[in-house]
Amino acid sequence: MAKSQYSFKTAVELSKALRNKQVSAVELAQDAIGRIERHDGKVNAVCVRDFERGLAAARAADAAIARGEHRPLLGIPMTVKESFNVAGLPTTWGFLPQKDFVPTEDALSIQRVKDAGGVILGKTNVPVGLADWQSYNEIYGTTNNPYDLGRTPGGSSGGSSAALAAGYGALSLGSDIGGSLRVPAFHCGVYAHKPTFALLPSRGHTAPPAPPIIYERDLAVTGPMARGAADLSLLLDVMAAPDPLDAGKAYRLDLPAARHASLKDFRILVIDTDSVLPTDKAVRGSIDKLASHLDKAGAKISRSSPLLPDFAASSRLYMRMLLSFLAATFPPEVYAGACAAAAALPAGDNSLQAERLRGIALSHRDWVQATVARSRLRAQWRELFKSFDAVICPIMPTPAYPHDHEPDQEQRRILIDGEPYIYTDQLAWPGIATLPGLPSTAIPTGFAPDGLPVGVQIVGPWLEDRTPLKLAELIEHEFGGFVPPKMFDD
After folding, report:
1. First to last CA, the chain
2. DSSP letters of 259-293?
3. Is the pTM of this model over 0.90?
4. What does the radius of gyration of the chain's CA atoms come to, in whole angstroms?
5. For a 10 Å CB count at each end of the chain, is N or C smaller?
6. CA 296 to each of CA 11, 237, 293, 303: distance values in angstroms, whole numbers, following the listed order
């Protein structure tokens, strides 16, 4: 079956075609299913297929459209990250002992997607524990980048980004604590939005076999992924709103409008590299080209500012707070060994690697002091956003790298312009938005000379998610966006 004219359309475009009766929801679902069946043997993005229920949802959507109903996602084919509970489908987070865990109820976000008419065709692959920028595990195998099968699609939402790039539906759901929405979007040339912290409820996005109750999870968020910038807002608005079992008893969501509607009105700080973790020539060149385009379009571009919080200090703080949170689930023997290693660190070692080790051993007293430092950081960002509307900066230092499954990630290395750097130091760039909890929209900006996608993140003010999302839309309209991989020209 040949690629249809709808295979790589955005959700906004598909909604219009559905309303105009140019295509049916069943036809869209069948097209996406056909693509999965033809191509996913190579990509391995969709680890759990749910075609029968997906087609039933598509038929229901066609009937609803025929009755004149309008819902935000009505009839749109999509996937969801394996880590979201979907009733009747396994949720493993890549943990082999949990391969048979099947939740009986949908995550709140999944329920909202279904209520909005979304047609879920399957779940997408993840790394073990959602703890890598590569997406592989013993249950489902390795997911490959559709632009180069020998390279990572990113992680931990790597299956979702690969599915979008391969044309397996117009939307997907992901999550992010160390760049897990933005990094795979960057590596696969698609879009993603890390919302303001706690903007989206996380009930049902929990590691098995934990019950789907409301947990307080520091730094972690869920969010939308898509092939078009406007689609991010479409899906965000479906997912966002307080949990009715919790804050929703008293609070309602009312996000402020985007600060501007035209590129020429935006004040943008553009950062292309930093000595904490340099970016390579391809990434720098792409950012510089975008800055030049924005300047010519009339936006007010600055390339530095004393208002920008100290990147080295905030990166060290992020490493400590992130690993303090993650270490809570470490096996006792791993935790004890890390604590002993942290105690042996020289006092003057302030490398990012050392800070991660210290974070594992962080006492509650030290964590409270770290939260005070984070509060000061948030105040600095508030001050910056009085003078700027958005900060454009890197997501990762290099385009997608070859698969590397060395078990100890601290022993892995990436090459930046030929020089080796510690793999896990890549946390620094996603952390620029994660630590203060700021919204950040990942957008594609083209390709490196070797044909691999590159992109940037647009960091916005606290709870002003519509501002980076709007800027992403304007950039896409003015300069272009997603370009399908050539291997899917069928």
Report:
1. 8
2. S-SSGGG-EEEE----TTS---HHHHHHHHHHHHH
3. yes
4. 21
5. N
6. 30, 32, 5, 15
